[in-house]
């Protein structure tokens, strides 16, 4: 048996436990647990106090956490609501995001801060659905026009950003043309797999077996979802694509098939328990362990990158929200802009790929991650205040009860 120790994994798991527990004991601190997890990883990791190292068990669980994070992000996407005017505005908004991100990337490249303006544009282009949805729920706006518009824009941004990162900046190598062919073939296999899963789910015999086994020790639906996740990740790897694309699409397929959850209301809760209860916090703590802030702290000019990257994120993701200002109103649109600019998990993933491929320096990666941390700390809190304020007469006239899908 190989000489494997679990002390570091225990320390990481302990941080994952204590971070939300501390926040639960101090409810006045409206800070997402993910922020504390990353900060604790920075402080206790190899580049901080040196108490925790990234050994093999930590690496393996962290990799599984990344896969589950993207899987659950894909699961959040409601493809049936992405249609009509909402979809058109979401797509147009993402194109504007890429254009603004490209301009920011060109400016930072001129200053010598980034090696690839396009990679920076893609890094700035995603929205953290898992962080945005709770804010909308807390404000009671999840099913409102601003809530559905925000979720639609975030869904398009997340899917497009993951696809662009895998297609253009895969660490697996190969030309863009080769990866484009691989993505097309991969998409065909995903579509075929989705058809097979959907067809099997409509079988009365299989459906009865699933219902009978879903809440027993078999946990058959959870096992099936994990098999689909691992299969898509393995397929993506075989096609020379980023595994995050396979994980994200696995979640999207499960979400598409799992439209009617009346017979299995606990299915998604169980998946979230696996992800957020164990695997995903390990990924975030490990991301903090990997983050070297020495370059930022030791160089004041490098530290300046953090607020500038934060402003670039706010502009790139926030400005497109104002396409909906006439229908939503000023305050809801401002809240939507702030929520769209809330991003951290994808920034962490993209910067790690950027460092691996040599397209991003560790200092720039650290600055971008710090900007993502600040976006999670600041933007949702300000958005919540906007959503909780009484509507002005102008906003009340502008905002319809439901989004226009026509």
Structure description:
The chain is mainly alpha-helical. The protein has helices at residues 7-25, 33-44, 56-75, 84-110, 117-123, 129-138, 145-168, 176-201, 204-213, 220-238, 243-257, 267-290, 294-298, 300-303, 305-318, 325-328, 330-340, 345-357, 362-388, 393-398. Helix 3 (56-75) packs across helix 12, helix 4 (84-110) crosses helix 7 (145-168) and helix 6 runs antiparallel to helix 7.
Describe the secondary structure blueprint for this structure:
Elements: H1 7-25, H2 33-44, H3 56-75, H4 84-110, H5 117-123, H6 129-138, H7 145-168, H8 176-201, H9 204-213, H10 220-238, H11 243-257, H12 267-290, H13 294-298, H14 300-303, H15 305-318, H16 325-328, H17 330-340, H18 345-357, H19 362-388, H20 393-398
């Amino acid at each position: 048996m190989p000489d494997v120790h679990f002390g570091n994994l225990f320390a990481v798991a302990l941080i994952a436990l204590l971070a939300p527990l501390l926040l639960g004991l101090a409810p006045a601190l409206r800070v997402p647990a993910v922020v504390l997890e990353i900060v604790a990883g920075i402080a206790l990791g190899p580049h901080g106090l040196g108490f925790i190292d990234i050994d093999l068990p930590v690496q393996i669980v962290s990799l599984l956490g990344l896969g589950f994070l993207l899987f659950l992000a894909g699961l959040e996407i409601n493809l049936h609501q992405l249609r009509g005017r909402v979809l058109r505005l979401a797509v147009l908004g993402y194109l504007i995001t890429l254009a603004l991100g490209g301009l920011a990337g060109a400016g930072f490249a001129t200053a010598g801060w980034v090696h690839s303006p396009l990679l920076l544009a893609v890094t700035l282009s995603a929205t953290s659905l898992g962080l945005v949805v709770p804010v909308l729920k807390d404000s009671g706006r999840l099913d409102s026009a601003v809530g559905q518009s925000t979720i639609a824009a975030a869904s398009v941004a997340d899917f497009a950003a993951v696809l662009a990162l895998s297609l253009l900046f895969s660490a697996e190598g190969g030309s863009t043309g080769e990866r484009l062919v691989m993505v097309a073939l991969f998409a065909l296999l995903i579509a075929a797999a989705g058809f097979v899963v959907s067809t099997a789910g409509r079988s009365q015999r299989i459906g009865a077996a699933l219902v009978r086994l879903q809440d027993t020790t078999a946990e058959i639906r959870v096992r099936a979802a994990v098999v689909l996740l691992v299969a898509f990740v393995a397929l993506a790897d075989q096609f020379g694509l980023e595994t995050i694309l396979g994980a994200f699409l696995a979640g999207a397929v499960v979400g598409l098939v799992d439209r009617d959850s009346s017979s299995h209301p606990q299915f998604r809760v169980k998946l979230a328990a696996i992800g957020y209860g164990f695997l995903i916090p390990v990924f975030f703590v490990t991301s903090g362990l990997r983050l070297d802030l020495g370059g930022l702290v030791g160089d004041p000019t490098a530290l300046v990158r953090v607020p500038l990257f934060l402003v670039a994120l706010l502009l790139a993701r926030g400005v497109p929200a104002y396409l909906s200002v006439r229908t939503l109103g000023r305050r809801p649109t401002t809240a939507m802009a702030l929520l769209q600019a809330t991003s951290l998990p994808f920034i962490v993933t993209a910067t790690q790929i950027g460092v691996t491929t040599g397209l991003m320096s560790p200092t720039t990666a650290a600055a971008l991650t710090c900007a993502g941390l600040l976006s999670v700390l600041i933007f949702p809190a300000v958005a919540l205040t906007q959503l909780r304020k009484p509507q002005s007469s102008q906003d009340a006239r502008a905002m319809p009860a439901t989004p226009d899908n026509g």
